[in-house]
Write a structure and sequence with these properties.
By secondary structure, the chain is an alpha/beta fold. It contains ten helices and eight strands. The chain has a single domain (about 30-315), classed as Ureohydrolase domain (Arginase, Chain A). It has helices at about 60-70, 85, 105-120, 135-140, 170-180, 205-210, 215-220, 225-235, 265-275, 300-315, and strands at about 40-45, 90-95, 125-130, 145-150, 180-190, 210-215, 240-245, 280-285.
Amino acid sequence: MSTSDNKLRQDIRPLDASVPRFSEIATFLRAPHTKDIDAVDVGIFGIPTDQGVSFRTGTRHGPAAIREASRFIRRYNPTTRVSPFDLLNVVDLGDVDVSPYSLDETVANITALASRLVDNGTFPLGVGGDHVIPLPMMRGVFRGKPLGLLHIDAHPDTNDEFYGSKINHATAMRRLHEEGVIDPKRTVQLALRGTQFNPSDAIYGRDAGFQIITMDDYEELGRAELIERLKSIFGDEETYITIDVDGLDPRDTPGTPVPEPGGLSMRDCQMILRGLQGLRLVGADVCEVAPHLDPSGVTALNAANLVFELTCLFGDAPRVEQPRS
C-alpha cells in the first residue's frame, strides 16, 4: 500500500452526498480523476477495446457506460461493513492508451500500466473492454510466483487459437497457464455453462488441473459451500479476480457480446465476492459490457456494482510485496 502511514489524503476522496449525483463529470465510483499515482492505493482505469472479440463488438464503450452508471453507488457496503474510501486512496486513472488498429499495442500498454501500478504499491483494477484483458493485466501483476485466479465466466477461454489468433478473448486463460502466470491448483473457473463447438472445448483447463465449477456444480454445492471451497483453494496467497459479465445470467447482464442463459444471479455474484473478505487480492478486472446491446443500462449498473465490490475487497486485503524474479 502506498500510504504506508495509513493516512488518507483529503484531496483523494470521492464526491459525497453534498454533490448531486447528476453533477460533475462521471468517474468510476465518483472517485477523483488523476494520472498521478503518488499516494494512490487503488487505481481504477478503463480499457476501451473490443479488438479481441470474434462476434458482436461494442465493449470499447463499456468503461464510459460503467463510469456513468457508477453515479448510483454510495460509499459504504452494509454487508461487509467496509467503506473502501475510508481505508484507501482510490482514484480513477482515466483510460489506458489503446490503439484502434493494433491489439498487440493495446495489450502491451495494459501490461505496462498494471506493472507500473504494482511497482508503486497500487492495486490495479481494470474495467473493460473485452475479455482479452486479464492476460495483459495479470502479466503486469505477476512477480515470479504463480498467482491464484478466480475466473467468473460462461466460457473457459482456453482455446489455443481462435480464427488464427493466439491473443483474443477465447485464449487468455490458456496463455496465462502456458506462461506460468497462474497456479492451476489455485485457478477456479466458475459459472461455465452453455453449448460448445465440440466436446473438447473445455478440456484444456481440466487437463491442466484448473478447479472447474460449472453452473451445474454450483447448483449442487450452494453458495455457502462454494465460498468455503474458494477460501480453502486460495488460502492466504496472492490471488487475482477476473469477471466476464456473461458469467452472470442475461437477465442481469443482457448487454454483453456472448450471453449464455442459466448463469449466476447478480445477488449470488455480490455475495460470493463479499464472502471472500480477507482474500489477498492483488488485482482485478470486470469486462465484456457492450452498452448498445442493453438500452436499459442494467448491465453497466451491475458491472459498476461489481467494481465497487472488488474495491471493497482491496480495502480488506493484506498486502505482501513480491520481488521480481
